[in-house]
Amino acid sequence: MTNNTSKIKCSGIIGKGNVEKNYEKVPMELFDYVQLDLISHTDLVVYMKLYQYYNVEIGYAYPTIPQLMFLTGIGGKSTIHKSLKNLETVGLIQRGKTLKGNNIYVVYKPLDTAELYESVPDKVVKLRERETDLVAMAENDKERFHQHMLNKQDQDKGGN
To answer: Which bin fits 106, alpha (ψ -120 to 50), beta or left (φ > 0)?
Structure first.
């Protein structure tokens, strides 16, 4: 497998507090939706593009599917359609059609964390279980590293 990533020099400027142009705020609650496995990272990107293209005066966003593919870098129509369906299912967007049949999207503010957690208690239980598993994994890794260091010290002492 080849690495197609181009090495690019960084700006050298800290991002937080220094981004002024071409900037969209990401509602932090969206990450709760991702953490609870309600939406994917791909869905998040589609949501943010719809959010960015939302026209407040007319009350909706209206990019075409090919435009969404281009704007998000998502290569397949079916992936875009799946993301739109997921976003609609969790109440982040509402899809519709104009009189001419064009797609329109109303983009909603995410629920706050408490409301979201109340809405999907089964997902919260799974999140807590995953968190417990990750904490246990971290403790296990720390113990294995400690044991590795002890073994290494013993080897170094025996080799001298």
So the answer is: beta
